[in-house]
Amino acid sequence: MDDKKQQIKAMIEAHDKIIIFRHRSPDLDSVGSQMALKHAIKQHYPHKEVLCYGDEQYYDFNFVGVYDQVSDKEIKESLVIVTDTANAQRISSQKYLLAKVIIKIDHHQDLEDELYGVINYVDQTASSTCEVLYYIFKYFEEFIFNVEIARCLFIGMYADTGGFSFPNTKPKTFEALSKIVSYDFDYEQTVTNIKSHDLATVKIIGYAYQNLIIENGVGHILFSKKFQRQHKISPQKLSIVANFLGIIKELEMWAVFIEYNDFVRVNMRSRKKYDISKVAVDFRGGGHKNASGAMLENFEQVSEILERLNELI
């Protein structure tokens, strides 16, 4: 892996323009890793142009950083680095293929047919892609952290570990954290930003608690486009619901189905002993053993997902 760190550094040094992509329906690790990497490159190579690509507006994440306007021409001239994205079809835009060179930096399960980068740096032992970046940065003695790099890394690590409570939280996570929190960013406000939601979103979480269907330890709930119109809530806002259902004792696994214009997004979670990542991969998705995402063509496929989850019980 040390050789790959050197290769990544050499690629960055060889390109004047770098564009950083993430996955569709982003979470705070994908956004945090994008922004941390942008700040890190600009810190050490101030003459380089570094842009973060985002084809959707997730205003709740603006406290992490704001996306840049990126043209096709710029992508063609650039090194593209994709963070926190296991498989190519989940990259936020297929425009990444326009790039001269592509690098993948991730912590998800690595599939042989998903090595979409010229360099594929994947550390499955890391809690988050932000943790992966921390150890890449730390490897280079000349690397200098700053407050913004530390803040963005913290956001991704905090979010992907559930506030350092999930099983993916390891000793090396706390080792990285001890360094990151030594920088003088507003820790309290940052955590508040991560955990706070507007009243409309909290009401939807309450709706999910009341309407979740549980059978044989497997829970699910559907959010149609009609529901979203009636409640004036975006599918992006609904993506957080899965994270709040884990407090229900009767659940072993659960799935939240969210209808978009041309597909259905599935957010799946499970208790420690159940590996749902393989189910996700079979439905155009991927992720972790206990937290994965998938994509369906329509709600008619919901029963297929639930059948597969029930097979794991």
Give structural notes.
By secondary structure, the protein is of the alpha/beta class. The chain folds into 2 domains: 2-194, inorganic pyrophosphatase (n-terminal core) (Alpha-Beta Complex), CATH 3.90.1640; 199-312, Diaminopimelate Epimerase, Chain A, domain 1, CATH 3.10.310.30. 38% of the residues lie in helices and 18% in strands. The protein has 12 helices and 11 strands. The protein has helices spanning 2-14, 28-44, 72-76, 129-139, 147-160, 171-180, 187-195, 199-211, 225-231, 235-238, 277-282, 302-312; strands at residues 17-21, 49-52, 79-83, 101-106, 119-122, 213-215, 218-223, 253-259, 264-270, 286-287, 291-296. Strands 6-7-8-9-11-10 form a 6-stranded mixed beta sheet. Helix 2 packs antiparallel against helix 5 (147-160) and helix 4 runs antiparallel to helix 5 (147-160). The two termini are 37 Å apart. The mean pLDDT is 93.
Features of the shown structure:
5-stranded parallel beta sheet; Diaminopimelate Epimerase, Chain A, domain 1; alpha/beta; inorganic pyrophosphatase (n-terminal core); 6-stranded mixed beta sheet; 313 residues
Helix count, DSSP H or I runs of 4 or more residues: 12
Overall residue-averaged pLDDT value: 93
The main sheet orders its strands as 6-7-8-9-11-10
Helix content: 25-40%
CATH topology name of the largest domain, in short, is inorganic pyrophosphatase (n-terminal core)
Shape: globular
Estimated share of beta-strand residues: 15-25%
> What is the count of β-strands?
11
What kind of sheet is the major sheet?
6 strands, mixed
- Please name the CATH architecture of the largest domain: Alpha-Beta Complex
Distance between the termini: 37 Å
CATH class of the largest domain: Alpha Beta
- Find the CATH superfamily of the largest domain: inorganic pyrophosphatase (n-terminal core)
Low-confidence segments, ≥5 residues, pLDDT <50? none
